[in-house]
């Protein structure tokens, strides 16, 4: 699922639109769109799992924040 609700976030001195995705399909779509819009770099800003919050690492969901830049 690709959530189309956008919000503006600060990234250094730039304001960018934040988009949330869930699952591999929307993630590939976001990467493809970023490339089509001229992105040449991707930077992992943060990666955490639900286990980081609950302390239970037996079954976790991962969360990543990635910035695409030209």
Describe this structure in words.
The chain is of the alpha+beta class. 26% of the residues lie in helices and 50% in strands. It contains two helices and four strands; from the N terminus they run ββαβαβ. It has helices at residues 24-36, 50-54, and strands at residues 2-11, 14-21, 41-49, 62-69. The strands form two sheets. The chain has a two-stranded antiparallel sheet with strand order 1-2. Strands 3-4 form a two-stranded antiparallel ribbon. The protein starts with a strand and ends with a strand.
Set out the fold topology.
Layout: E1 2-11, E2 14-21, H1 24-36, E3 41-49, H2 50-54, E4 62-69
- Percent range of helical residues: 25-40%
Low-confidence stretches: 1-13
N-to-C CA distance: 25 Å
Question: Radius of gyration in whole Å, from Cα?
Answer: 14 Å
What's a concise summary of this model?
The protein has helices spanning 24-36, 50-54; strands at residues 2-11, 14-21, 41-49, 62-69.
What structural keywords apply?
70 residues, alpha+beta, two-stranded antiparallel ribbon, two-stranded antiparallel sheet, 2 helices, elongated
């Amino acid at each position: 699922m690709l959530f189309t609700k956008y919000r503006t976030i600060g990234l250094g001195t730039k304001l960018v639109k934040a988009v949330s995705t869930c699952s591999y399909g929307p993630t590939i779509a976001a990467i493809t769109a970023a490339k089509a819009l001229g992105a040449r770099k991707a930077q992992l800003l943060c990666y955490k799992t639900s286990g980081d919050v609950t302390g239970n690492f037996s079954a976790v969901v991962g969360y990543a924040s990635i910035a695409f830049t030209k």
